[in-house]
Amino acid sequence: MQLRRNQALESFHEFLKQENEVGNITRQEAVSMVPPLFLNVQPDHHILDMCAAPGSKTFQLLEMIHQSTKPGVLPTAMVVANDVDVQRCNLLIHQTKRMCTANLIVTNHEAQNFPGCSLAKFCPEACAESKLQRLEFDRILCDVPCSGDGTARKAPDMWRTWNIGMGNGLHRLQVEIAMRGIGLLKVGGRMVYSTCSMNPVENEAVVGEILRRCGDSVELLDVSNELPELIRRPGLRTWKVRDRASWLGSHNDVLHYRKNAILPSMFPSGKGTTDSCTVGGSVEVNINAVDADMNESGDMVEGKEETKIATSDSNNGDNANTEEIKQDESESVKVSRGSDEKTDSASIVTEHSNLPLHRCMRIIPHDQNSGAFFIAVLQKLSPLNESLVVEVMKGERSTSKDKALKCSNGQGSDTVPAEEISVQQPGVDDTHVLVEQQNRDMDTEISKDKSSEEAKVVAGEAQNDQATRRDKRKTQNQGRWRGVDPVIFFKDEATIRSIVSFYGIKDSFALEGHLVTRNPDTNHVKRIYYVSKSVKEVLDLNLKVGERLKITSLGLKIFERQSSKEGSPCTFRLSSEGLPLLLPYITKQILYASAIDFQHLLQYRIIKFPDFVDAKFGEQASALLQGCCVVILREGHEDLESIGMDPSAIAVVCWKGKTNLCVMVTPMDGRELLERISFRFGLKIPKVDDGKPDLKSDDGSDEQPDGGAETVDPDCVPESKASEDMDISDVKDTE
């Protein structure tokens, strides 16, 4: 039942939407919350969410690292949330913005090509002076794209577009993403691989391929003793593969012309046939993703095409591309099917995996009235075996060099010419296993909206410019990624000193080195963001290796430029997002309001000093310096000095003008706070016109602020109407 379609629950639905929007609750399916729980996140962990959008699991991870911290204290942990789609990244940013955290970085990369940042490779001279040598993660959530058949209960409409070939087409990409995650994982770290599908080709087959590739370096953990009340079933060790209305028990059953689409790794044993186009039973992966640190993106265009092949394979199946079906059908007439022509599932001999796939978890909908989910917990025991990596590289290079020729001749040899393996180096480490291309400008240069012809032109230009990019890094102010603002450390000491002096920020709150902006022109900075120590170290590393991370969002907005006609000692006001973090360290520009005055301020948005119920409060407000200030609800607190350290304290950012005080929060946040304090203290919320304070000014004119809009003192003029915190409209005098 959908709440929005039930009139009796309409008000409840609106309540849920409002609470979700302001960040008090997050709506998420219960089974979707399970994978992060198996990560066993600790307060000092660096965490990567490889396919993060829309952001519910990322929000859950952020809550985990913040739950044990005190107000005003940031955890040492950090979360990097990545997604390949720019629009989904925007949704991810919107979702996580409600968390108000300085420990988050949002990136926009293909998960299978997530960049490796290693000083030893890209900036050896900076190794001695940098604390963070290489970007690795203690925990990785690998919730990969899948066919989604496990969501059929909540989204029955999916059957209109679902087909059996979707899982087969996504298998290759899922293996690439998972292997890239293993490469980024620290030794001793834990990675959770999950899907909302029940197809073993997307689940156990992927886990089995990871274990075969990594050998003894990776272990599939038995977590049956964790979350004991969760009803789960063991993973499968035998299964069949469905392709074109036929059941296949092993790769030997695959028709010759389908062996490039139905890979050996899809089957329990992972073994291929002599005429297979794959090598050693391994999935054909993007060559450039194997070792981008060793190859300076010389094959970037080919790598992009491999990625497109991986995703386009998801269209294979009963409703595959018409031309491809016709071509396959015409070829099938020429191929002797023999024993391959098996359609009866019961008569097919299936393979049995000797890997411990029973340690995987299958959450079945009817076991506990939930959606379906597959979860596997992997732990990295040692650096990945160099010989295995080289063998995979050899096979993939020989396969991709002339795939069509080998398939037509039935060759399965993995012999590679000497020049093809000349890139082997004795010091292959984890970052050299499955690393993305050296230059990922293609992420933004080739958008999905461009035609294939335009993409080829851009790709050609990018490929021709590789040598220049390798030898000469762009400076910080220029920024590397087209269409993405660079991350600049804010170092204007005069501005920082004025902020510290105006708000009386304690020395214990470190500002130096933690303030960043996205505007290269430091003289026209509008927003300043605060980043935690862990995020700062990653930013330093990213700058030293040539800005390999494409960062779309990071940190917590803490200050925002605000100009005033009458002038203010400080040109930057506090941000509502950053107030909870900064509140315990502010000693100036603070007011403590009673519940009734706090309620009036939220309800009417702007109040003249004489109109406050508490006359003393009005006098204190008028005595403040003109500019931004903080109003704290004092009810329920005996010691006013310790209110800022109380996590339950309620405070809002306001603007103190010559004659009045104006609240600077969004209307939605204002309504939520108003309802909260009214419920807590039993106050009635009158309509805007009922009991409204007299706002008549001394000169005989009446100020009529709009109770539903953001307003500010008439002498306070915002620098930009595009402020994210508020939409300010001037209060005009009417005669």
From TrEMBL:
Q: Where does S-adenosyl-L-methionine bind?
A: 51-57, 83, 143
Stretches of Polar residues bias are at 309-322
Subcellular location field: Nucleus
- Per its UniProt record, what InterPro entries does this chain match? MeTrfase_RsmB-F_NOP2_cat, MeTrfase_RsmB-F_NOP2_dom, Pre-PUA_NSUN2, PUA_NSUN2, RCMT, RCMT_NCL1, RsmB/NOL1/NOP2-like_CS, SAM-dependent_MTases_sf
Q: What name does UniProt use for this protein?
A: SAM-dependent MTase RsmB/NOP-type domain-containing protein
* Protein family per UniProt: Belongs to the class I-like SAM-binding methyltransferase superfamily. RsmB/NOP family.
Biased region (Basic and acidic residues) positions are 323-344, 439-456, 688-699, 721-735
Region annotated Disordered sits at 294-350, 439-478, 688-735
**GO molecular function terms noted in the UniProt entry:** tRNA (cytidine-5-)-methyltransferase activity; tRNA binding
Instruction: Give the GO cellular component terms, alphabetically.
Output: nucleus
Where does the UniProt entry say this protein principally localizes? nucleus
Concerning SUPFAM superfamilies, the annotation shows: S-adenosyl-L-methionine-dependent methyltransferases
Alphabetically sorted, this entry's keywords are: Methyltransferase, Nucleus, RNA-binding, S-adenosyl-L-methionine, Transferase, tRNA processing, tRNA-binding
Q: Where is the SAM-dependent MTase RsmB/NOP-type domain?
A: 1-381
Entry annotated with the keyword DNA repair: no
Cited PANTHER family: NCL1 YEAST -RELATED NOL1/NOP2/FMU SUN DOMAIN-CONTAINING, RNA CYTOSINE-C(5)-METHYLTRANSFERASE NSUN2-RELATED
Q: What is the lineage of its organism?
A: Eukaryota, Viridiplantae, Streptophyta, Embryophyta, Tracheophyta
Q: Which domain of life is it from?
A: Eukaryota
Q: Name one GO biological process term.
A: tRNA methylation
In the UniProt entry, which residues are flagged as the active site? Answer: 196
Organism, as annotated: Aegilops tauschii subsp. strangulata
